[in-house]
Model the fold of this input.
Amino acid sequence: MAWRDAAVSAYRERWILRPRPGSGARGGVRLDRRHVYILPTRHGMLFALVLLLMLIGAINYSNSLGYMLTFLLASMALVTMLHTHRNLLGLRLSAGRAPAVFAGEQARFALRLEVEGGAPCIGVAVRLPGGEPLAVEVAAGRAAAAGLSRPAPRRGRLPLGRMRVESDYPLGLFQAWSWLDLGQSCLVYPRPEPPGTPLPLAADGDGAGRAAGAGEEDFAGLRAYRPGDPLRHVAWKAVAKGQPMLTKQFDGAEASRLWLDWGLLPGMGDEARLSRLCRWVLEAETRGAEYGLRLPGVTLEPGRGEEHRRACLEALALHGVGA
Done:
């Protein structure tokens, strides 16, 4: 039933440790006694069964040495449980940098672990639900770095979500764990269209069009003619020999300004348009062109450089995505 699922979800949310309001994701969280849980492992259950059999044998045969060995091992298990639980106490985890990726790649989230107190945290592992544990050793007074990755199938904001911090130190008889959510997210750009789609034409001051990023100084090669190319750039000698129309490309200091406009791609779906525009942004930046971006409700003035490229890709990633 819906109310039962909501109750179970709310109960599970109580287990997840999050940064305090106002501290920000970089403030991190500190594991305390209320959020560190412990249970025996399979080896611990087997160890308890062996102790039970040893106790039954010692009682049956009235063997004092059997009693002594049984209680000695039981006391060792109790001390082990204490060390396992205390191994996570005082551990502070904070979110690091999560570089932006393109859809279809692996998003990587950096974590910072440090321990408050004089004792190191040995045998600590962090993992995502269903993922493989990543072992981390945190020395006393020092910080350790770890990185978790998850697939980024679609554009937008990809949250890291909840993760599990666990430890079975020192003997593996018990496992202590805690669930955390640092509120970390990664920006996922649209998947760029495969190379090969030509850039839109840029307008010169006299209204003529020329290839984006092309100058007027050095001959760079030929490409297939596109409607709107200046006739003075057509390779007429090749046409006279019976070859198809080709357009000359030039490199030079003068670069064209062009607009990467949503309206230039009628008839395409939204994701296909974003994929095409993403490829155009990468291509224009590679060629050194000065380009601007027009999306419904968003206009970025022409520019170039890494900051401009990042702003354009971010606008494409967040287009139509809720806050």
Remarks:
- DSSP finds six helices and 20 strands in the chain.
